[in-house]
Design brief:
Helices cover 46% and strands 19% of the residues. A five-stranded antiparallel beta sheet has the order 1-8-3-6-9. A four-stranded antiparallel beta sheet has the order 2-7-4-5. Helix 3 runs antiparallel to helix 4 and helix 6 crosses helix 7. By secondary structure, the chain is α+β, with helices and mostly antiparallel strands. It has three domains: 154 residues, Sandwich (Jelly Rolls); 48 residues; 59 residues, Homeodomain-like (Arc Repressor Mutant, subunit A).
């Protein structure tokens, strides 16, 4: 079948069977008639592939939500935070889901090019729907050699998904990447976000981490790390100005567990310590209006 990407000749160890390379832990077809929200802050220990057969799914990372529609695949690797939901307005809807593990899964994922994918739009989803149905039937009927059949079919599925993910990345318009990055930065400013995982942000913008770092600096003038540091210090300055919180408490609120380290970073950015910043601002506050000052007895 010309749809399937061949593997490198040395991919499969000679002593390993496909079901040892990849093993389905659970799978099924889910029909939803009402909203549902799944949050796993630490993810799972296995891989997760979800295929949206009808309706749509909303995938959230770093506070940014993307839509996966019918014909899309959502993919999570082990221990990646998972936050996705299905909403009432899109019901009824159906999806296939597969949890899987295996000693050579990571090598397989790298070989088919799925290391950066989160949502992949399939070019020919109808053909893969037959595989999804067959995998579920084989798994739940548990007939002889079902594990081998499921493993072989899932490997073929991942090859096609990986190919479509690679083509999506290659064909992704640079201006679209810039729009996504601008949206990401605007969102962080709007919600006062003080942390950012570069890997997730790059994935949201459909970029490698190297490309993301370079483009981010071109757009903002600073690296992502420096951008977040300045956001934290700007927030700390607001708290110093408008609250009576202690410096230790402010340091913790903006993401620094070590007060001394916070003070060093604050001085590097502003030129003064947090204590001096607070005192100097208070000293330079404008005097109260004349009507509010005591003027003594009238002459």
């Amino acid at each position: 079948m010309d749809d399937f990407k061949p593997f490198h000749s040395d991919f499969f160890p000679s002593s390993a069977l496909p079901e040892e390379l990849i093993h389905i832990n659970s799978c099924g077809e889910l029909r939803l008639d009402t909203e549902s929200h799944m949050v796993r802050p630490s993810g799972r220990q296995d891989y997760l592939l979800i295929y949206i057969e009808s309706g749509r799914c909303y995938v959230t990372e770093e506070g940014i939500t993307q839509e996966a529609v019918a014909g899309d695949v959502i993919f999570y690797r082990p221990n990646e935070p998972q936050d996705y939901d299905y909403r009432d307005e899109d019901c009824p809807q159906t999806n296939f889901w597969f949890h899987f593990t295996g000693g050579y899964c990571e090598k397989l994922i790298e070989d088919v090019g799925l290391t950066r994918a989160r949502i992949v739009h399939l070019k020919n989803p109808n053909r893969l729907e037959m595989f999804f149905t067959s995998i579920c039937e084989n798994y739940h009927m548990a007939q002889p050699n079902f594990a081998l059949a499921c493993a072989g079919q899932l490997i073929s599925v991942l090859a096609v998904v990986g190919r479509d993910a690679a083509e999506l990345t290659e064909n992704f318009d640079e201006s679209s990447s810039m729009r996504l990055m601008s949206q990401l930065i605007a969102h962080m400013k709007m919600v006062n976000q003080l942390s950012m995982r570069i890997e997730n942000a790059a994935k949201f913008c459909n970029m490698s981490t190297t490309h993301f770092n370079r483009t981010f600096k071109q757009l903002t003038g600073v690296s992502p790390k420096e951008f977040m540091t300045r956001r934290r210090i700007d927030r700390a300055k607001e708290l110093l100005l408008f609250t009576d919180r202690s410096i230790a408490n402010i340091a913790e609120l903006v993401g620094y567990k070590d007060q001394n380290y916070f003070a060093r970073v604050f001085r590097q950015i502003t030129g003064v310590s947090p204590t001096h910043f607070k005192k100097s601002v208070h000293r330079t506050e404008p005097p109260a209006p004349a009507a509010e000052r005591s003027t003594g007895d009238a002459g």
